[in-house]
């Protein structure tokens, strides 16, 4: 999977990790490949920022503007996080997923129960598109789900591990694609009720600019990672014998989901810019240096797939970040993941009958994963 997505970058990143936990690589930056120093960097936001040279801000700000969580630090970031803290409550997430997932998951269960083969990739893609429509306040049908997904991935598909900035032409395309989502979100912010995400943001005290920025952040960071992860979860559980076991022991599902996140690593690399002179794992860094956190190496350092093994504190949920930038959308992502897994288990489990790996994509993924009732 990793080689299909990054035939050159993946061996390079993993090879650097074998040299040492923290390695300075010319023209790349300081690469951090172990969990403890990676968490140290992520939690020290005074010394390592998302807004300096070589940081995510260089990539995202020209497309989404200056205030979208992805490219904020300090008091402004903390203030916006506080406003958003009441957004994805368990009850709100449950209600949102009931609206968007009930019908497609019922269809998935019915197809599997009838013994028909189902490609999970478009199923999850439609679910992600439906969630995007909810995030921007659209009441939409399946065609709208596809358009929403295409608008989100038009931006993220331009990102590459070795690319620190987008070209002017790419920025223009990204802004145009994003406007297809923020336009409806602005209408929903002004007129939507509290059951809509933009309307709820208005009630939480966000300005329109803050709300649209938050919507952009959730859409850009959560779309491709979800569509990548869920089919990989099902395939991994099938390949390791855990899928039939979960039919008999559904209470172990959270352990399997968490370990599959650790093993597949939805965010394989994270970037930070050095703001103050520090030492990471014995390597001195100075302001302006770029830090490349190889989350893929830090998480996989724990070993092979094993839901029976607890995650040590340094590794726990590292793929969602750490400290003030820990992923706000995690509850929503978790609900979407469980919706698909529960549908598969409710049909009595499934066997993978065909699969194709996506090539040269940012997030390693299946191009198709066909399953049939086991």
From TrEMBL:
<keyword id="KW-0479">Metal-binding</keyword>
<dbReference type="GO" id="GO:0004497">
    <property type="term" value="F:monooxygenase activity"/>
</dbReference>
<keyword id="KW-0408">Iron</keyword>
<dbReference type="Pfam" id="PF00067">
    <property type="entry name" value="p450"/>
</dbReference>
<dbReference type="InterPro" id="IPR017972">
    <property type="entry name" value="Cyt_P450_CS"/>
</dbReference>
<dbReference type="GO" id="GO:0005506">
    <property type="term" value="F:iron ion binding"/>
</dbReference>
<keyword id="KW-0349">Heme</keyword>
<dbReference type="InterPro" id="IPR036396">
    <property type="entry name" value="Cyt_P450_sf"/>
</dbReference>
<protein>
    <submittedName>
        <fullName>Cytochrome P450</fullName>
    </submittedName>
</protein>
<keyword id="KW-0560">Oxidoreductase</keyword>
<dbReference type="InterPro" id="IPR001128">
    <property type="entry name" value="Cyt_P450"/>
</dbReference>
<comment type="similarity">
    <text>Belongs to the cytochrome P450 family.</text>
</comment>
<keyword id="KW-0503">Monooxygenase</keyword>
<dbReference type="GO" id="GO:0020037">
    <property type="term" value="F:heme binding"/>
</dbReference>
<dbReference type="GO" id="GO:0016705">
    <property type="term" value="F:oxidoreductase activity, acting on paired donors, with incorporation or reduction of molecular oxygen"/>
</dbReference>
<dbReference type="InterPro" id="IPR002397">
    <property type="entry name" value="Cyt_P450_B"/>
</dbReference>
């Amino acid at each position: 999977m990793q080689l299909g997505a990054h035939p050159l970058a993946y061996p390079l990143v993993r090879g650097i990790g074998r040299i040492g936990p923290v390695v300075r690589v010319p023209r790349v930056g300081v690469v951090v490949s172990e969990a403890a120093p990676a968490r140290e960097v992520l939690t020290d936001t005074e010394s390592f920022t998302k807004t300096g040279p070589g940081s995510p801000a260089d990539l995202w700000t020209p497309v989404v503007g200056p205030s979208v969580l992805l490219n904020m630090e300090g008091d402004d970031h903390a203030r916006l996080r506080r406003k958003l803290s009441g957004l994805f409550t368990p009850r709100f997430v449950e209600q949102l997923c009931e609206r968007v997932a009930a019908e497609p998951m019922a269809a998935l269960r019915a197809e599997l129960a009838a013994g028909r083969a189902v490609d999970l990739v478009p199923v999850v893609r439609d679910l992600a598109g439906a969630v995007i429509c909810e995030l921007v306040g659209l009441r939409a049908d399946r065609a709208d789900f596809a358009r929403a997904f295409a608008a989100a991935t038009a931006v993220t598909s331009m990102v590459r591990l070795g690319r620190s900035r987008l070209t002017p032409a790419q920025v223009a395309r990204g802004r145009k694609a994003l406007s297809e989502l923020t336009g409806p979100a602005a209408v929903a912010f002004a007129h939507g009720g509290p059951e809509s995400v933009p309307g709820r943001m208005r009630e939480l005290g966000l300005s329109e600019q803050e709300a649209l920025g938050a919507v952009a952040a959730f859409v850009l960071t959560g779309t491709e990672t979800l569509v990548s992860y869920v089919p990989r979860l099902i395939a991994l559980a099938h390949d390791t014998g855990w899928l039939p076991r979960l039919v008999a022991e559904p209470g172990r599902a959270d352990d399997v989901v968490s370990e599959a996140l650790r093993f597949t690593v939805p965010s394989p690399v994270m970037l930070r810019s050095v703001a103050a002179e520090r030492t990471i794992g014995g390597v001195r860094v100075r302001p302006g240096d770029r830090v490349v956190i190889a989350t893929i190496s830090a998480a996989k350092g724990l070993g092979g797939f094993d839901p029976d093994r607890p995650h040590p504190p340094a590794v726990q949920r590292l793929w969602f970040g750490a400290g003030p930038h820990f992923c706000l959308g995690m509850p929503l992502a978790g609900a979407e993941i469980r919706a698909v897994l529960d549908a598969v288990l409710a049909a009595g489990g499934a066997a993978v009958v065909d699969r194709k790996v996506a090539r040269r994509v940012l997030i390693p993924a299946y191009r198709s994963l066909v399953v049939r009732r086991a």
